[in-house]
Amino acid sequence: MPGGAGRPRVRMTGAQRRQQLLDVGREVFAQRGYDGTSIEELAARADVSKPVVYEHFGGKEGLYTLVVDREMQRLLDRFTAALAAGGSPRELLERAALVLLDYIEEDTDGFRVLTRDSPAGGSPDGCASLIGEVARKVEHVLGAQFSVRGQDPELAELHSQALVGMVALVGQWWLERRSPGKEQVAAHLVDLAYDGLARLRPPPGAP
């Protein structure tokens, strides 16, 4: 059956078509953002009719939500594997920073989707959700260090949010420059965070 511009249309199973639409959606949302993306363009890029997109996802927001969910899971799986490998707290934090920088370098479209605009009143903001989920992965590392240093371990949540947010923001800057190297960037970020942790003031009333 001929497709657009005289090209033969590739026949796919339902699962293959769904995967293709997710891949196309990631690319288009990364380039144009949610508001700048239309069902017409998504369908054209995938060489399908608009009803096919609606059939699989119910509309643009449904596709966007699944693209964001898939990217977050991919990144969180990387963090889980990196932190499970063990090491000193400093090594774990540096490895976590490198995981995010690796993702930015290797899956740039996915990172752009997670840090761009989301539908107003619709799906939760990708970047905010990403920061929160990743921060929970490193919170236990900081919590252990807080206890060792006589700090309130409940403050680990605040500092893990700050650390991951800092890495995500610097990652957006590094994406456009790619200099210095990501290993240097990760080391500088962890130096800043870890040395700051070492100099935290004692809690009020502490001896």
Automatic annotation (TrEMBL):
It comes from the Bacteria. Residues 15-75 form the HTH tetR-type domain. Residues 38-57 bind DNA. The keyword Transcription regulation applies. Signal peptide: none annotated. One of its GO terms (biological process) is negative regulation of DNA-templated transcription. GO terms for molecular function: DNA-binding transcription factor activity; transcription cis-regulatory region binding. It holds the Pfam family TetR_C_32. Keywords: DNA-binding, Transcription, Transcription regulation. This is DNA-binding transcriptional regulator, AcrR family. It comes from Geodermatophilus poikilotrophus.
